[in-house]
Amino acid sequence: MNFSKLKSVRELPALGLLLVSCLWLIFALPSFRTAVNLGQVAQQAGLLGLLVCGESLVIITGGIDLSVGATAALCSCLAASRMQAGWPWLIGIPLAIVAGGAVGYVNGVLITVRKLPPILTTLAMLLFLRAVTNIATASVPYNHIPEPIKAIAAGIWPFVTFLLLTAGLAVMMSQMKIGRRIVAVGASESSVRLSGVNTQAVLRLVYLLCGACAGLAGLLMGAASNSAQANLADGYELDVISAVVIGGVRLSGGEGSIIGAALGALIIVVMRNALFLYGLPTEQYGLVIGAIILIAAFAEQARRSRDRVATV
């Protein structure tokens, strides 16, 4: 086995941390390994993971999307309101995905055409969407989600959806031309543009996919709790970005993978579940998650230093 090559795998620290954490919890905490708890972990990981998959695409290009949580809330309420009004539930799923994709596309247009900074564009979109959703719903939740939608969002099914999406995007990033272009844009957009690639179209597609993932996640979140409401996924932006960073995706773009980001989502959910089972106050969760993010930052720093030494 080539250990030097193995050490260069960006996902290795996240995978190691996840395996060690799960093994420790399985043997040290009996309540963790119960079927009910593992089912809840799988469900929560699936819901968060859908957001993380889309966000990782954006961050690999060197951008950022702070509006994923607000997009999820808007799409959840939009789809739930239409289904509550009598629309078939089969329309609710594509409606949420298309609405999320539309929001993401608007972000992409503002960033690529108007040349607005991604962080400011998506922050403004976050505030705008939260306000619009609050006004449109009058802060009243939609509690009549069709049973088929609730069945899709129950148990391990969100986790299955998350795994399928992760696999599909991973294949796209590794085997398809568009995936290689996404990584290349993050590494050096100007170089890719000079090679004849329409980098603006690539970026718009990435933000569209991120929004579509958020729309699907929002629909399932609302269905899982049988309550699509304006404050759905409030504050999830930090968890999503944290998961991407923990998974080894470089914030400046150009390096990272969907699988690594997916591992980061699993780590976040497993750690939060462990802290809950150990009875720690929620106010202290940030100490552990923050420490994990710092460990990921140090791992990235060590990796970059090793790469510089290797090229000398």
Blueprint of the fold:
Elements: H1 3-7, H2 12-28, H3 35-60, H4 68-84, H5 89-112, H6 118-137, H7 147-152, H8 157-175, H9 177-187, H10 189-194, H11 199-225, H12 236-246, H13 258-277, H14 285-311
Helix pairs in contact: 2-13, 3-8, 3-11, 3-12, 3-13, 4-5, 4-6, 4-11, 5-6, 5-11, 8-9, 9-11, 12-13
Folded structure, characterized:
It is built from 14 helices and no strands. It has helices at about 5, 10-30, 35-60, 70-85, 90-110, 120-135, 145-150, 155-175, 175-185, 190-195, 200-225, 235-245, 260-275, 285-310. α2 (about 10-30) packs parallel to α13, α3 packs across α12 and α9 packs across α11 (about 200-225). The chain is mostly helical and about 300 residues long. The longest helix is centred in the last third of the chain and has 27 residues, at about 200-225. About 75% of the residues lie in helices and about 0% in strands. It is globular, with a radius of gyration of 19 Å.
The major sheet is characterized as: none
Mean pLDDT: 92
Order of helices and strands: HHHHHHHHHHHHHH
What is the terminal-to-terminal distance? 25 Å
Overall, the morphology is globular
Radius of gyration: 19 Å
In total, the number of strands is: 0
Task: Count helical runs.
Answer: 14
Structural class: mainly alpha
In terms of DSSP E residues, the strand content is under 5%
Helix content range: over 70%
Weakly predicted, low-confidence segments: none
